[in-house]
Write a structure and sequence with these properties.
The structure is a homodimer of 222-residue chains.
Chain A lengths: L1 H35 L2 H32 L3 H34 L7 H27 L2 H26 L7 H33 L5 H7 L1
Helix pairs in contact in A: 1-2, 1-3, 1-4, 2-3, 3-6, 4-5, 4-6, 5-6
Keywords (chains A, B): Cytoplasm, Phosphate transport, Transport
Family (chains A, B): Belongs to the PhoU family.
Organism (chains A, B): Pseudoclavibacter albus
Chain lengths: 222, 222
Protein backbone atom coordinates (compact mmCIF):
# COMPACT_ATOMS: atom_id res chain seq x y z
CA UNK A 1 0.00 0.00 0.00
CA UNK A 2 2.74 2.37 1.04
CA UNK A 3 4.79 1.50 -2.05
CA UNK A 4 1.86 2.12 -4.36
CA UNK A 5 1.38 5.47 -2.71
CA UNK A 6 5.03 6.49 -3.15
CA UNK A 7 4.86 5.40 -6.77
CA UNK A 8 1.75 7.50 -7.32
CA UNK A 9 3.29 10.53 -5.63
CA UNK A 10 6.28 10.16 -7.97
CA UNK A 11 3.86 9.94 -10.89
CA UNK A 12 2.30 13.24 -9.83
CA UNK A 13 5.69 14.91 -9.52
CA UNK A 14 6.78 13.59 -12.92
CA UNK A 15 3.51 14.77 -14.40
CA UNK A 16 4.13 18.30 -13.11
CA UNK A 17 7.65 18.29 -14.57
CA UNK A 18 6.26 17.15 -17.92
CA UNK A 19 3.58 19.85 -17.98
CA UNK A 20 6.12 22.51 -17.02
CA UNK A 21 8.29 21.40 -19.97
CA UNK A 22 5.33 21.88 -22.31
CA UNK A 23 4.76 25.33 -20.82
CA UNK A 24 8.41 26.25 -21.33
CA UNK A 25 8.19 25.14 -24.98
CA UNK A 26 4.94 27.07 -25.41
CA UNK A 27 6.32 30.39 -24.13
CA UNK A 28 9.51 29.90 -26.15
CA UNK A 29 7.56 29.38 -29.37
CA UNK A 30 5.05 32.11 -28.51
CA UNK A 31 7.81 34.67 -27.94
CA UNK A 32 9.44 33.65 -31.21
CA UNK A 33 6.15 33.89 -33.12
CA UNK A 34 5.63 37.32 -31.57
CA UNK A 35 9.12 38.51 -32.49
CA UNK A 36 9.15 37.17 -36.05
CA UNK A 37 5.41 37.51 -36.86
CA UNK A 38 5.34 33.80 -37.68
CA UNK A 39 1.66 32.94 -38.11
CA UNK A 40 2.12 29.18 -38.53
CA UNK A 41 4.18 28.99 -35.34
CA UNK A 42 1.62 31.15 -33.50
CA UNK A 43 -1.18 28.84 -34.59
CA UNK A 44 0.70 25.76 -33.45
CA UNK A 45 1.21 27.26 -29.99
CA UNK A 46 -2.52 27.98 -29.81
CA UNK A 47 -3.59 24.52 -30.96
CA UNK A 48 -1.01 22.69 -28.81
CA UNK A 49 -2.36 24.35 -25.67
CA UNK A 50 -5.02 21.64 -25.50
CA UNK A 51 -2.23 19.16 -24.67
CA UNK A 52 -1.33 21.16 -21.58
CA UNK A 53 -4.99 21.37 -20.57
CA UNK A 54 -5.49 17.63 -20.99
CA UNK A 55 -2.37 16.70 -19.06
CA UNK A 56 -3.29 19.09 -16.26
CA UNK A 57 -6.76 17.55 -16.08
CA UNK A 58 -5.37 14.02 -16.01
CA UNK A 59 -3.00 14.99 -13.23
CA UNK A 60 -5.86 16.52 -11.23
CA UNK A 61 -7.87 13.32 -11.60
CA UNK A 62 -4.89 11.28 -10.37
CA UNK A 63 -4.45 13.60 -7.39
CA UNK A 64 -8.12 13.36 -6.43
CA UNK A 65 -7.94 9.60 -6.89
CA UNK A 66 -4.98 9.44 -4.50
CA UNK A 67 -6.86 11.52 -1.95
CA UNK A 68 -9.80 9.13 -2.17
CA UNK A 69 -7.88 5.85 -2.00
CA UNK A 70 -4.84 6.67 0.12
CA UNK A 71 -6.17 9.39 2.44
CA UNK A 72 -2.70 10.91 2.83
CA UNK A 73 -1.92 13.06 5.87
CA UNK A 74 0.71 15.62 6.92
CA UNK A 75 3.31 16.41 4.28
CA UNK A 76 1.98 13.83 1.78
CA UNK A 77 -1.41 15.48 1.87
CA UNK A 78 0.14 18.90 1.27
CA UNK A 79 2.11 17.51 -1.67
CA UNK A 80 -1.08 16.28 -3.31
CA UNK A 81 -3.07 19.45 -2.63
CA UNK A 82 -0.14 21.58 -3.83
CA UNK A 83 0.04 19.52 -7.01
CA UNK A 84 -3.58 20.46 -7.73
CA UNK A 85 -2.73 24.13 -7.31
CA UNK A 86 0.52 23.96 -9.26
CA UNK A 87 -1.22 22.25 -12.17
CA UNK A 88 -3.83 25.03 -12.21
CA UNK A 89 -1.05 27.65 -12.45
CA UNK A 90 0.76 25.72 -15.19
CA UNK A 91 -2.45 25.37 -17.16
CA UNK A 92 -2.97 29.12 -16.93
CA UNK A 93 0.63 29.80 -18.02
CA UNK A 94 -0.08 27.72 -21.12
CA UNK A 95 -3.17 29.87 -21.80
CA UNK A 96 -1.09 33.04 -21.49
CA UNK A 97 1.53 31.72 -23.93
CA UNK A 98 -1.31 30.98 -26.37
CA UNK A 99 -2.67 34.53 -25.89
CA UNK A 100 0.76 35.99 -26.71
CA UNK A 101 0.93 33.84 -29.84
CA UNK A 102 -2.56 34.99 -30.79
CA UNK A 103 -1.48 38.65 -30.72
CA UNK A 104 1.16 37.86 -33.37
CA UNK A 105 -1.39 36.07 -35.51
CA UNK A 106 -4.06 38.77 -35.26
CA UNK A 107 -1.66 41.56 -36.20
CA UNK A 108 0.06 39.76 -39.10
CA UNK A 109 1.57 41.01 -41.42
CA UNK A 110 2.19 43.99 -39.10
CA UNK A 111 4.64 43.65 -36.23
CA UNK A 112 3.10 43.71 -32.78
CA UNK A 113 3.48 46.73 -30.55
CA UNK A 114 4.69 50.31 -31.05
CA UNK A 115 8.41 50.84 -31.67
CA UNK A 116 8.82 52.68 -28.35
CA UNK A 117 8.09 49.56 -26.28
CA UNK A 118 8.59 46.64 -28.67
CA UNK A 119 12.16 45.96 -27.51
CA UNK A 120 11.05 45.81 -23.89
CA UNK A 121 8.23 43.39 -24.72
CA UNK A 122 10.75 41.14 -26.48
CA UNK A 123 12.95 41.29 -23.38
CA UNK A 124 9.97 40.27 -21.25
CA UNK A 125 9.55 37.28 -23.55
CA UNK A 126 13.20 36.26 -23.10
CA UNK A 127 12.87 36.61 -19.33
CA UNK A 128 9.68 34.57 -19.25
CA UNK A 129 11.40 31.81 -21.24
CA UNK A 130 14.22 31.76 -18.68
CA UNK A 131 11.74 31.73 -15.80
CA UNK A 132 9.85 28.83 -17.40
CA UNK A 133 13.12 26.92 -17.82
CA UNK A 134 14.04 27.44 -14.18
CA UNK A 135 10.53 26.41 -13.19
CA UNK A 136 11.04 22.99 -14.79
CA UNK A 137 14.17 22.57 -12.68
CA UNK A 138 12.43 23.86 -9.58
CA UNK A 139 9.58 21.38 -9.87
CA UNK A 140 12.09 18.61 -10.49
CA UNK A 141 14.58 19.49 -7.73
CA UNK A 142 12.53 21.66 -5.33
CA UNK A 143 15.65 23.76 -4.89
CA UNK A 144 15.09 26.75 -2.63
CA UNK A 145 17.81 28.64 -4.50
CA UNK A 146 15.93 28.32 -7.80
CA UNK A 147 12.70 29.41 -6.12
CA UNK A 148 14.45 32.58 -4.94
CA UNK A 149 15.89 33.13 -8.43
CA UNK A 150 12.41 32.96 -9.92
CA UNK A 151 11.12 35.52 -7.44
CA UNK A 152 14.00 37.87 -8.30
CA UNK A 153 13.38 37.37 -12.04
CA UNK A 154 9.75 38.33 -11.48
CA UNK A 155 10.85 41.63 -9.94
CA UNK A 156 12.64 42.33 -13.23
CA UNK A 157 9.50 41.42 -15.21
CA UNK A 158 7.44 43.78 -13.04
CA UNK A 159 9.97 46.55 -13.75
CA UNK A 160 9.66 45.91 -17.51
CA UNK A 161 5.88 45.95 -17.23
CA UNK A 162 5.96 49.26 -15.38
CA UNK A 163 8.33 50.81 -17.91
CA UNK A 164 6.02 49.75 -20.76
CA UNK A 165 2.98 51.19 -19.00
CA UNK A 166 4.87 54.42 -18.30
CA UNK A 167 5.92 54.68 -21.96
CA UNK A 168 2.37 54.07 -23.17
CA UNK A 169 0.97 56.63 -20.75
CA UNK A 170 3.64 59.28 -21.52
CA UNK A 171 2.66 62.38 -23.43
CA UNK A 172 3.59 62.52 -27.10
CA UNK A 173 3.78 58.76 -27.72
CA UNK A 174 3.78 58.07 -31.46
CA UNK A 175 1.51 55.06 -31.78
CA UNK A 176 -1.78 53.97 -33.29
CA UNK A 177 -4.48 52.64 -30.98
CA UNK A 178 -4.15 48.99 -32.17
CA UNK A 179 -0.46 49.04 -31.31
CA UNK A 180 -1.25 50.40 -27.87
CA UNK A 181 -3.85 47.67 -27.31
CA UNK A 182 -1.38 44.97 -28.36
CA UNK A 183 1.44 46.31 -26.21
CA UNK A 184 -0.85 46.62 -23.18
CA UNK A 185 -2.06 43.04 -23.54
CA UNK A 186 1.36 41.56 -24.34
CA UNK A 187 2.92 43.23 -21.33
CA UNK A 188 0.07 42.11 -19.12
CA UNK A 189 0.25 38.50 -20.36
CA UNK A 190 4.01 38.32 -19.79
CA UNK A 191 3.61 39.81 -16.33
CA UNK A 192 0.89 37.32 -15.36
CA UNK A 193 2.97 34.44 -16.73
CA UNK A 194 5.79 35.31 -14.32
CA UNK A 195 3.31 35.86 -11.46
CA UNK A 196 2.14 32.26 -11.81
CA UNK A 197 5.74 31.05 -11.73
CA UNK A 198 6.25 32.93 -8.46
CA UNK A 199 3.04 31.48 -7.07
CA UNK A 200 4.36 27.98 -7.85
CA UNK A 201 7.78 28.82 -6.35
CA UNK A 202 6.11 29.93 -3.11
CA UNK A 203 4.04 26.76 -2.91
CA UNK A 204 7.12 24.60 -3.36
CA UNK A 205 9.08 26.59 -0.78
CA UNK A 206 6.22 26.20 1.65
CA UNK A 207 6.17 22.45 1.08
CA UNK A 208 9.90 21.96 1.38
CA UNK A 209 10.39 24.31 4.31
CA UNK A 210 8.55 21.76 6.46
CA UNK A 211 11.54 19.46 6.07
CA UNK A 212 13.90 21.93 7.64
CA UNK A 213 12.18 22.10 10.98
CA UNK A 214 14.32 20.71 13.79
CA UNK A 215 12.89 17.91 15.92
CA UNK A 216 12.25 20.40 18.67
CA UNK A 217 10.33 22.70 16.33
CA UNK A 218 8.39 19.70 15.05
CA UNK A 219 7.42 18.83 18.59
CA UNK A 220 6.25 22.39 19.21
CA UNK A 221 4.24 22.34 16.01
CA UNK A 222 2.50 19.07 16.84
CA UNK B 1 -17.47 11.75 13.73
CA UNK B 2 -19.95 11.88 10.87
CA UNK B 3 -21.78 14.81 12.47
CA UNK B 4 -18.56 16.75 12.90
CA UNK B 5 -17.80 16.16 9.26
CA UNK B 6 -21.20 17.37 8.08
CA UNK B 7 -20.83 20.43 10.28
CA UNK B 8 -17.42 21.16 8.77
CA UNK B 9 -18.70 20.71 5.23
CA UNK B 10 -21.46 23.20 6.02
CA UNK B 11 -18.83 25.56 7.41
CA UNK B 12 -16.96 25.36 4.10
CA UNK B 13 -20.10 26.02 2.10
CA UNK B 14 -21.02 28.98 4.31
CA UNK B 15 -17.48 30.30 3.98
CA UNK B 16 -17.75 30.23 0.19
CA UNK B 17 -21.07 32.08 0.32
CA UNK B 18 -19.54 34.71 2.58
CA UNK B 19 -16.52 35.24 0.32
CA UNK B 20 -18.75 35.47 -2.74
CA UNK B 21 -20.76 38.21 -0.98
CA UNK B 22 -17.55 40.16 -0.39
CA UNK B 23 -16.64 39.71 -4.08
CA UNK B 24 -20.07 40.99 -5.14
CA UNK B 25 -19.65 44.05 -2.92
CA UNK B 26 -16.14 44.60 -4.29
CA UNK B 27 -17.17 44.58 -7.96
CA UNK B 28 -20.20 46.77 -7.18
CA UNK B 29 -18.03 49.38 -5.48
CA UNK B 30 -15.25 49.07 -8.09
CA UNK B 31 -17.69 49.67 -10.95
CA UNK B 32 -19.11 52.67 -9.12
CA UNK B 33 -15.64 54.09 -8.42
CA UNK B 34 -14.83 53.60 -12.10
CA UNK B 35 -18.03 55.28 -13.26
CA UNK B 36 -17.89 58.25 -10.89
CA UNK B 37 -14.07 58.61 -10.60
CA UNK B 38 -14.43 58.27 -6.83
CA UNK B 39 -10.87 57.92 -5.52
CA UNK B 40 -11.79 57.25 -1.89
CA UNK B 41 -14.17 54.47 -2.92
CA UNK B 42 -11.53 53.01 -5.27
CA UNK B 43 -8.98 52.96 -2.47
CA UNK B 44 -11.36 51.25 -0.11
CA UNK B 45 -11.99 48.47 -2.67
CA UNK B 46 -8.24 48.02 -3.04
CA UNK B 47 -7.54 47.91 0.70
CA UNK B 48 -10.55 45.70 1.50
CA UNK B 49 -9.29 43.04 -0.93
CA UNK B 50 -7.06 41.70 1.83
CA UNK B 51 -10.24 40.55 3.64
CA UNK B 52 -11.15 38.34 0.70
CA UNK B 53 -7.61 36.95 0.54
CA UNK B 54 -7.58 36.17 4.25
CA UNK B 55 -10.97 34.48 4.21
CA UNK B 56 -10.01 32.43 1.16
CA UNK B 57 -6.80 31.32 2.90
CA UNK B 58 -8.67 30.38 6.07
CA UNK B 59 -11.15 28.37 4.04
CA UNK B 60 -8.31 26.56 2.26
CA UNK B 61 -6.75 25.67 5.58
CA UNK B 62 -10.07 24.31 6.82
CA UNK B 63 -10.48 22.25 3.66
CA UNK B 64 -6.98 20.77 3.96
CA UNK B 65 -7.63 20.09 7.62
CA UNK B 66 -10.81 18.20 6.74
CA UNK B 67 -8.93 16.15 4.14
CA UNK B 68 -6.32 15.24 6.78
CA UNK B 69 -8.69 14.35 9.61
CA UNK B 70 -11.79 13.01 7.87
CA UNK B 71 -10.32 11.46 4.69
CA UNK B 72 -13.58 12.03 2.81
CA UNK B 73 -14.37 9.91 -0.26
CA UNK B 74 -16.72 10.06 -3.25
CA UNK B 75 -18.91 13.14 -3.44
CA UNK B 76 -17.71 14.53 -0.08
CA UNK B 77 -14.14 14.49 -1.34
CA UNK B 78 -15.15 16.30 -4.52
CA UNK B 79 -16.98 18.93 -2.49
CA UNK B 80 -13.85 19.66 -0.47
CA UNK B 81 -11.53 19.71 -3.50
CA UNK B 82 -14.00 21.88 -5.41
CA UNK B 83 -14.14 24.29 -2.48
CA UNK B 84 -10.37 24.76 -2.79
CA UNK B 85 -10.75 25.61 -6.45
CA UNK B 86 -13.78 27.83 -6.01
CA UNK B 87 -12.03 29.82 -3.30
CA UNK B 88 -9.07 30.35 -5.66
CA UNK B 89 -11.43 31.74 -8.32
CA UNK B 90 -13.22 33.98 -5.82
CA UNK B 91 -9.90 35.30 -4.55
CA UNK B 92 -8.90 36.14 -8.12
CA UNK B 93 -12.25 37.87 -8.77
CA UNK B 94 -11.52 40.07 -5.76
CA UNK B 95 -8.13 40.94 -7.27
CA UNK B 96 -9.77 41.89 -10.56
CA UNK B 97 -12.30 44.15 -8.81
CA UNK B 98 -9.36 45.84 -7.07
CA UNK B 99 -7.59 46.26 -10.44
CA UNK B 100 -10.68 47.94 -11.89
CA UNK B 101 -10.84 50.28 -8.89
CA UNK B 102 -7.15 51.05 -9.33
CA UNK B 103 -7.73 52.23 -12.92
CA UNK B 104 -10.17 54.84 -11.60
CA UNK B 105 -7.70 55.99 -8.98
CA UNK B 106 -4.72 56.21 -11.35
CA UNK B 107 -6.63 58.23 -13.91
CA UNK B 108 -8.28 60.68 -11.47
CA UNK B 109 -9.38 63.45 -12.10
CA UNK B 110 -9.80 62.25 -15.69
CA UNK B 111 -12.53 59.76 -16.53
CA UNK B 112 -11.36 56.29 -17.48
CA UNK B 113 -11.54 55.17 -21.09
CA UNK B 114 -12.20 56.87 -24.44
CA UNK B 115 -15.72 58.11 -25.09
CA UNK B 116 -16.19 55.59 -27.92
CA UNK B 117 -16.12 52.61 -25.56
CA UNK B 118 -16.78 54.04 -22.11
CA UNK B 119 -20.49 53.25 -22.19
CA UNK B 120 -19.76 49.62 -23.05
CA UNK B 121 -17.23 49.30 -20.23
CA UNK B 122 -19.85 50.64 -17.81
CA UNK B 123 -22.30 48.05 -19.15
CA UNK B 124 -19.72 45.32 -18.56
CA UNK B 125 -19.49 46.55 -14.97
CA UNK B 126 -23.26 46.30 -14.52
CA UNK B 127 -23.27 42.80 -16.01
CA UNK B 128 -20.40 41.67 -13.78
CA UNK B 129 -22.29 42.96 -10.72
CA UNK B 130 -25.31 40.92 -11.78
CA UNK B 131 -23.17 37.85 -12.40
CA UNK B 132 -21.54 38.23 -8.98
CA UNK B 133 -24.97 38.48 -7.37
CA UNK B 134 -26.18 35.32 -9.09
CA UNK B 135 -22.95 33.61 -8.08
CA UNK B 136 -23.76 34.16 -4.40
CA UNK B 137 -27.11 32.46 -4.98
CA UNK B 138 -25.51 29.69 -7.01
CA UNK B 139 -23.00 28.83 -4.29
CA UNK B 140 -25.80 28.92 -1.73
CA UNK B 141 -28.40 26.90 -3.67
CA UNK B 142 -26.32 25.01 -6.28
CA UNK B 143 -29.17 25.66 -8.71
CA UNK B 144 -28.42 24.36 -12.18
CA UNK B 145 -30.66 27.05 -13.64
CA UNK B 146 -28.53 29.82 -12.11
CA UNK B 147 -25.35 28.12 -13.36
CA UNK B 148 -26.77 28.22 -16.89
CA UNK B 149 -27.78 31.87 -16.45
CA UNK B 150 -24.23 32.77 -15.47
CA UNK B 151 -22.86 31.03 -18.55
CA UNK B 152 -25.29 32.93 -20.77
CA UNK B 153 -24.40 36.22 -19.08
CA UNK B 154 -20.73 35.50 -19.78
CA UNK B 155 -21.51 35.19 -23.50
CA UNK B 156 -22.85 38.74 -23.30
CA UNK B 157 -19.69 39.90 -21.50
CA UNK B 158 -17.56 38.30 -24.22
CA UNK B 159 -19.59 40.14 -26.86
CA UNK B 160 -19.03 43.46 -25.04
CA UNK B 161 -15.30 42.70 -24.79
CA UNK B 162 -15.11 41.94 -28.50
CA UNK B 163 -16.99 45.12 -29.40
CA UNK B 164 -14.58 47.19 -27.28
CA UNK B 165 -11.55 45.56 -28.89
CA UNK B 166 -13.05 46.12 -32.35
CA UNK B 167 -13.68 49.79 -31.55
CA UNK B 168 -10.15 50.27 -30.23
CA UNK B 169 -8.66 48.56 -33.27
CA UNK B 170 -10.85 50.43 -35.79
CA UNK B 171 -9.28 53.04 -38.02
CA UNK B 172 -9.82 56.66 -37.11
CA UNK B 173 -10.45 56.16 -33.38
CA UNK B 174 -10.17 59.46 -31.55
CA UNK B 175 -8.31 58.57 -28.39
CA UNK B 176 -5.07 59.21 -26.55
CA UNK B 177 -2.84 56.26 -25.74
CA UNK B 178 -3.53 56.35 -21.96
CA UNK B 179 -7.26 56.05 -22.65
CA UNK B 180 -6.63 53.10 -24.93
CA UNK B 181 -4.49 51.40 -22.27
CA UNK B 182 -7.20 51.93 -19.64
CA UNK B 183 -10.00 50.68 -21.86
CA UNK B 184 -8.00 47.59 -22.87
CA UNK B 185 -7.26 46.69 -19.27
CA UNK B 186 -10.75 47.47 -17.96
CA UNK B 187 -12.36 45.34 -20.64
CA UNK B 188 -9.91 42.52 -20.00
CA UNK B 189 -10.47 42.65 -16.22
CA UNK B 190 -14.26 42.55 -16.59
CA UNK B 191 -14.00 39.68 -19.05
CA UNK B 192 -11.75 37.65 -16.73
CA UNK B 193 -14.05 38.36 -13.79
CA UNK B 194 -16.95 36.74 -15.65
CA UNK B 195 -14.71 33.86 -16.81
CA UNK B 196 -14.01 32.95 -13.21
CA UNK B 197 -17.74 33.00 -12.44
CA UNK B 198 -18.30 30.54 -15.29
CA UNK B 199 -15.48 28.36 -14.05
CA UNK B 200 -17.17 28.22 -10.62
CA UNK B 201 -20.56 27.51 -12.24
CA UNK B 202 -19.08 24.56 -14.14
CA UNK B 203 -17.50 23.12 -11.00
CA UNK B 204 -20.79 23.33 -9.14
CA UNK B 205 -22.69 21.74 -12.02
CA UNK B 206 -20.16 18.94 -12.14
CA UNK B 207 -20.58 18.37 -8.42
CA UNK B 208 -24.34 18.42 -8.42
CA UNK B 209 -24.76 16.40 -11.60
CA UNK B 210 -23.47 13.40 -9.64
CA UNK B 211 -26.73 13.48 -7.68
CA UNK B 212 -28.80 12.96 -10.78
CA UNK B 213 -27.36 9.56 -11.62
CA UNK B 214 -29.88 6.76 -11.30
CA UNK B 215 -29.07 3.89 -8.95
CA UNK B 216 -28.25 1.78 -11.97
CA UNK B 217 -25.79 4.35 -13.28
CA UNK B 218 -24.26 4.62 -9.82
CA UNK B 219 -23.74 0.87 -9.79
CA UNK B 220 -22.07 1.04 -13.18
CA UNK B 221 -19.82 3.85 -11.97
CA UNK B 222 -18.70 1.99 -8.86
Amino acid sequence: MRDVFQKELAEIENGLVEISQLVRDAIERAAKAFETSDVALAESVMSDDVQIDMKANALDELAINILARQAPVARDLRVVVSALRISASLERMGDLAAHIAQLARLRFPEQVGPVAVRETILKMGQHDIQIAGRLVELIDTQSDEIAEEIKAADDQIDAFHKSIMDALLAEGLEAQAPQVVDATLASRYHERFADHAVSIAKKIQYLTSGDWLTDEECAQEA
